[in-house]
Design a protein that fits this description.
Strand content: 15-25%
Radius of gyration: 19 Å
Order of helices and strands: EHEHEEHEHHEEEHEHEHHEHEH
CATH topology: TIM Barrel
CATH architecture: Alpha-Beta Barrel
Shape: globular
Strand order of the largest sheet: 1-2-3-5-8-9-10-12
CATH class: Alpha Beta
Number of domains: 1
């Protein structure tokens, strides 16, 4: 199994100090975290996309290109690309360039986004939310497979024998769909023959099993090779010496993250300490605990999903970089080797 980390580059204030770092410091720390992950032998590093002043990254390809120059082996992915509101041609060209800069390490996780800010920003109508994603995904896959493209769609100007340049090092850039709870999105990922990246931020992992099952059924019905059926699990994680210490240390940042996120959506709610303790239990989807507990949780979910990748989001809620670095080290040195050994086929 591949093990990695990702960031959405949120700019929350540190709940312990009340301080919010600058855009510059956040970007610098993301690049530093990616280099640490690469040096430690992790497999994947992801960067998300948002178009708001409380997030530091709006163009993952640019940040990942910078990361490509200070790393050697780690795969570099968006996490996620808001595919509804980006021109697929520009997206492909940017990630093909990243692939060249990184010597074949670029990937794309495409999602529909948690906010609607990018729709008016780039001139799209939110009413066409799902139709835009479907059409843009079709075109992106067509661009990925062909050097010259003829295309007619509803939401984008037509292409006739358009030369799509540059071409990546890889024959095709790996593309995944980021899916939270939508059966329709899981079915679409299978139908198009791309990877499924489950976004699991809470609840019981068994609740996500129907998504994986539907994904595999639809992929099989569409005639895609079984080796194309890649499943990844993504979610919040925090690793410490003991479960009690992990819960104590992570709760302020986890609570701060959700308080801020819910406010953005007009909801005044966060998780109480008691609710957080329930979320951190063994049977939950939240990865909080000692290294051994994280190992057990990943392996338990592997029995459920048969997934090939796990990537953790650690740097949330204004967490200082020192704690992020400690988590990267524990994930790479204490968790990843055991997971790889236990899941090796």
């Amino acid at each position: 199994m591949e093990i990695g980390i990702y960031t959405l580059a949120d700019l929350n204030s540190n709940p312990q100090t009340g301080r919010t770092i600058s855009f510059k410091q956040r970007i610098d720390e993301i690049i530093k975290a990616a280099k640490m992950a690469d040096d430690a032998g992790l497999d994947v590093f992801g960067v998300g996309e948002h178009h708001r002043l409380d997030y530091a990254v709006s163009t993952p390809a640019v940040v990942l290109s910078a990361i490509s120059q200070v790393t050697k082996q780690i795969k570099l992915t968006s996490a996620t690309t808001v595919l509804n509101t980006i021109d697929p041609v520009r997206l492909f060209e940017d990630f093909a360039t990243l692939d060249l800069l990184s010597d074949g390490r670029a990937e794309i996780i495409a999602g529909r986004g948690a906010f609607l800010d990018s729709f008016p920003l780039f001139g799209y109508d939110p009413k066409n939310y799902d139709e835009l994603f479907e059409e843009h995904l079709k075109l992106l896959l067509h661009l990925n497979a062909n050097e010259k493209v003829t295309w007619n769609g509803r939401y984008r100007s037509s292409l006739k024998d358009a030369e799509i340049s540059p071409r990546p090092v890889q024959q095709k850039i790996p593309i995944w769909a980021g899916v939270g709870s939508s059966l329709e999105s899981a079915e679409r990922a299978g139908r198009f023959g791309i990877g499924l990246a489950l976004v699991m931020l809470g609840g019981n992992p068994s609740e996500y099993k129907p998504l994986v099952d539907l994904y595999r059924i639809s992929s099989d019905q569409a005639g895609h090779p079984i080796e194309n059926m890649k499943v990844g699990v993504t979610g919040h994680a925090y690793i410490s010496k003991t479960s009690q210490q992990a819960i104590k240390e992570f709760y302020p940042y986890h609570s701060n993250y959700w308080l801020h996120l819910n406010r953005q959506h007009g909801v005044k709610k966060t998780f109480s300490k008691e609710e957080f303790n329930q979320m951190a239990k063994k049977e939950s989807a939240l990865f909080v605990g000692s290294s051994q507990q994280i190992i057990e949780k990943i392996l338990s979910q592997n029995e459920l999903f048969g997934h090939q990748r796990f990537i953790a989001q650690m740097d949330i809620g204004g967490m200082p970089f020192k704690k992020v670095a400690e988590n990267i080290e524990r994930l790479a040195t204490e968790v990843a080797p055991v997971i790889r050994k236990e899941t090796r086929q």
